[in-house]
Each structure stands twice: as structure tokens, then as C-alpha cells.
UniProtKB/TrEMBL annotation:
PROSITE patterns referenced in this protein's UniProt entry, alphabetically: HTH_TETR_2 (PS50977)
HTH tetR-type domain: residues covered: 16-76
Keywords: DNA-binding, Transcription, Transcription regulation
Protein name: TetR family transcriptional regulator
Organism classification: Bacteria, Bacillati, Actinomycetota, Actinomycetes, Kitasatosporales
Keyword Transcription: yes
GO molecular function, one term: transcription cis-regulatory region binding
Length: 219
């Protein structure tokens, strides 16, 4: 008798594993194409499943799938700024920006479509998800600065800088990712210090933060 080759057993995915598989497939597509250019058939093909199966997990269709994928990406972006408290605040910010720009680099088209808006799948819920990332980033940064109860000028400066980081990221993509990510990161850190320094001339709280940053340095 000819020995039979063992056939690998088929492993049935759990509900959570299947959902994760579909979200990963959707994220990989949204990373390189605008949301309106991605269909459920595309997601099904990328995941190696049928279109009805995608609907089984996302009965709301493409809109529900996009919002879930966006939420997953938002969680990853929030983690970019969730930096361990080692090193100076500016060293922590540098590490956070390194992860942030790596995310932008990997999800270039999808990132641009997300922040520029105007997508046919954009809703108040997707806008809230994106704004949640901005607020979370601001809270992380304020926490690293030791600002437990920040005043309006310091809060506004941090949020304005986050907006500038987003704008710079989009321009960076338009400019074929030039200058190199490391140079862009360091320039954004310089912009952070410069913005705080301007506010410090009008706000004692921010002046104290700038003084602490100067003492701690960048290591």
C-alpha cells in the first residue's frame, strides 16, 4: 500500500478570530486605497472568504466594516503616544513620533483619506473616532509634561501642535515622504518646543513647563 500523506486538519476560527481576520484584510486595503474605492468583494477576496460571510460579521455592510476598521486603526494610533515614563519628556515625544510616522508610512493612502475627509463613508461617528485619537494624544502629552490640571493656553498649544503634526504628515506624503522620517520627526519636536516657548511669554504655567523641559534636556 502506498503511504498516504497526512492532510492538515482544518481549524475553524472563533468568532473573534474571524472578525479580526476580516478587519486585518480591510485595514490592509484601506491603507493603500481610499475607502470609497474598496468594496466588500475586495475585502472578501483579501480575506479568502465569501461575501456573505463578510455580511454575517458586518450586517451593516461596508459602512459598519469601515467604522470597525477605523476604530482598530485609531486604537493603534492612540498607542503611539502611550509612551513609558523613561527618559525626558522630549525623548518620550521623539519615540512616540517615531511610531506615529511609521504608522503614517505604512497606511499612507488610507491615512490621507482619513484626515482629509470627504469620503463617502465619512459620518459623525467616524469623525468622532478621529477626534478621539487627537484628544487621547493631547492627554498623553500633557500627562508626560506633568500638567495634571492644564489651563486653556497650554491645552490649546498642545492641540494646535497635534493639528500641525497631522498637516505635516499629509504634506510629507504629498512630497513623496521627504525629508526622511527621522528628520521630519526631529523638526516636529523642535516645533513643539517652539510653540510652547511662544505661549510661555503669555502664560506662567507654560513657562514652567518650558523651564522643566530645558532642565531635562532631550535624553
Amino acid at each position: 500500500m502506498t503511504p498516504q500523506t497526512a492532510t492538515p486538519a482544518y481549524r475553524r476560527l472563533s468568532v473573534e478570530e474571524r472578525r479580526r481576520q476580516l478587519l486585518d484584510a480591510a485595514l490592509s486595503l484601506f491603507a493603500h486605497r481610499a475607502p470609497e474605492d474598496v468594496s466588500l468583494d475586495d475585502v472578501a477576496e483579501a480575506a479568502g472568504v465569501s461575501r456573505p460571510l463578510v455580511y454575517r460579521y458586518f450586517p451593516g455592510g461596508k459602512q459598519q466594516l469601515y467604522e470597525a476598521a477605523l476604530g482598530s486603526a485609531a486604537d493603534e494610533l492612540r498607542q503611539c503616544f502611550d509612551e513609558p515614563r523613561t527618559g525626558s519628556p522630549l525623548a518620550r515625544l521623539t519615540r512616540a513620533l517615531t511610531r506615529y510616522l511609521a504608522f503614517v508610512d505604512e497606511h499612507d493612502t488610507g491615512f490621507a483619506a482619513l484626515l482629509r475627509g470627504g469620503s463617502v463613508v465619512e459620518t459623525s461617528r467616524t469623525t468622532a473616532i478621529v477626534d478621539g485619537v487627537r484628544r487621547a494624544a493631547a492627554e498623553h502629552i500633557l500627562s508626560h509634561l506633568g500638567a495634571t490640571d492644564p489651563g486653556p493656553r497650554l491645552r490649546m498649544t498642545i492641540r494646535m501642535w497635534i493639528t500641525a503634526v497631522e498637516a505635516a504628515s499629509l504634506i510629507w506624503l504629498d512630497e513623496d515622504k521627504q525629508p526622511p522620517a527621522g528628520e521630519l520627526r526631529d523638526w516636529l519636536v523642535d516645533q513643539f518646543v517652539a510653540a510652547l516657548s511662544v505661549t510661555a511669554t503669555r502664560d506662567e504655567e507654560t513657562a514652567a513647563v518650558v523651564g522643566a523641559l530645558a532642565r531635562d534636556g532631550r535624553d
